[in-house]
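Bug #77: duplicate submission created two jobs. Keeping one. Sequence:
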Amino acid sequence: MTPDVLFSHAGTAAMAGWALLILGPRRFSLVNAIPLWILPAGLSAVYALIVLSRFSGMGGGFDSLASVATLMADDWALLAGWVHYLAFDLFIGAVMAARMDRAGIGRVVQAPILGAIFLLGPLGFLIAGLTELGLRAFRLPTQTRALKGPVHGAA
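Kept job's structure:
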């Protein structure tokens, strides 16, 4: 199989995961497992196969930007990097979606945040985290007052 064919299949699998994550019903644990565990594990297996079968004879490395550029000049190394990106970003997207669900952030707000995780990785993760933190901080004073109840002994 060529790097181009694997690239296409990996991208299709990741897009299916993102579509399911953004549009699918999250109340079913099996549906949640697909973008959280199943697809990232499959993509990780593809990554491992590429790395274990192709990296031994490649030039370049990770010690400098020039070495990384040399490494990524090889189509198989570039594909491995892309699949690495697809697997990790989908996993992080699923984790952050679950966190935003628990924080009560609606799906309409989540959709562009998840899109940012897909397209911008760490920036999207930061936006998701700050959104969750902001909502929890906003709700905390209200929840604290509700838990205290009425003041006893007040006239």
